[in-house]
Amino acid sequence: DVKVTQSSRYLVKRTGEKVFLECVQDMDHENMFWYRQDPGLGLRLIYFSYDVKMKEKGDIPEGYSVSREKKERFSLILESASTNQTSMYLCASNPTARMSGANVLTFGAGSRLTVL
Amino acid sequence: AQKITQTQPGMFVQEKEAVTLDCTYDTSDPSYGLFWYKQPSSGEMIFLIYQGSYDQQNATEGRYSLNFQKARKSANLVISASQLGDSAMYFCAMRENNAGNMLTFGGGTRLMVKP
C-alpha cells in the first residue's frame, strides 16, 4: 500500500515563528499536494508539485511556500505563522496517469497546527 | 462559484438503514471524475468510490454506490445498511480533465449513525 507520512500530528507554535510541515511518500509518486482543511470549507489546495523542484500554486497559496528537493518529500513552510493559519494540513500524492480511470489521491494522517 | 456543493453539514441515520449524502458539482469540462472520501475521527482520508463522466453505469463498491445523474450534475453517495463505523465526515471531490491531477473538494457532510 502507498504510504504518505506526515511527520507531526500536532504542533503548537507562536505567532511569527517559522513552521515546517514535512510529508514523505514511499511509492515513487510524481505528484504531491498540500491541502488545508477547515470546518465547513472542506479541503482547499495550497500548493502542489508534479516533479522535483517544481511547484504550482493552488487556490490559497498566500502565506505559504513549499519545497521539493527529493521526489519522495514535499515540505510546507509557513515563513511567519499567524493565528489564521491554525488548521488541519493534509498532504497527498498520486502518480501521473492518463485521465481515464480513477487516479486516486492517497492522503497522510494530517497535521493539526495551532498558532497562538 | 462553488465547484462542489454538499448541502448537508450533518446527518443522522439509524443503524442498518440506508442513507444518501448529496453532492452537486459545476463544470464545463466534458471529461471529469468524481470521488468520495471518508474521514473518520482519526483524520486520515479514505478513498471510497469513483465515477468517471463517461461511465455508463453507476459505480458500486460493496455497501457504497454512487447515484450519478449527469444532466443534474449530481453524484450522491448511497450507503446501504449503515454501521456504527460509518460515522465520519464524508467529502465529495471532482477532478476536471483540464485541471490535471488536482482534486477540488466540497465542504463535507458529517454522518452520525445511531445505534
Structure write-up:
The complex is a heterodimer of chains A (116) and B (115). Chain A is mainly β and 116 residues long. Chain A is built from no helices and eleven strands. Chain A has strands spanning 4-6, 10-13, 19-25, 31-38, 42-49, 56-57, 65-70, 73-78, 87-94, 106-107, 111-115. In chain A, the strands form two sheets. In chain A, strands 2, 4, 5, 6, 9, 10 and 11 form a seven-stranded mixed beta sheet that branches. In chain A, strands 1-3-8-7 form a four-stranded antiparallel beta sheet, with no helix packed on it. Chain A is globular, with a radius of gyration of 14 Å. Chain B is built from no helices and twelve strands.
Q: Biggest chain pair contact, residues each?
A: A-B, 32 and 27 residues
Order of helices and strands of chain B: EEEEEEEEEEEE
Determine the strand fraction of chain B and express it as a percent band. Answer: over 45%
Query: Structural class, from helix and strand content of chain A?
Result: mainly beta
In terms of per-residue confidence, which ranges of chain B show pLDDT below 50 for 5 or more consecutive residues?
Answer: none
Distance between the termini of chain B: 38 Å
Oligomer: heterodimer
The main pleated sheet of chain A reads as: 7 strands, mixed
Largest sheet of chain B: 6 strands, mixed
Rg result of chain B:
14 Å
As a percent range, the share of helical residues of chain B equals under 10%
Give start-end ranges of low-pLDDT stretches of chain A: none
Compute the number of strand runs of chain B.
12
> Overall mean pLDDT score of chain A?
91
Q: What secondary-structure arrangement, pairings included, does this model have?
A:
The complex is a heterodimer of chains A (116) and B (115).
Chain A: E1 4-6, E2 10-13, E3 19-25, E4 31-38, E5 42-49, E6 56-57, E7 65-70, E8 73-78, E9 87-94, E10 106-107, E11 111-115
Parallel strand pairs in A: 2-11
Antiparallel strand pairs in A: 1-3, 3-8, 4-5, 4-9, 5-6, 7-8, 9-10, 9-11
Chain B: E1 4-5, E2 10-14, E3 19-21, E4 24-25, E5 32-39, E6 46-52, E7 60-61, E8 64-69, E9 74-79, E10 88-96, E11 104-105, E12 109-114
Parallel strand pairs in B: 2-12
Antiparallel strand pairs in B: 1-4, 3-9, 5-6, 5-10, 7-8, 8-9, 10-11, 10-12
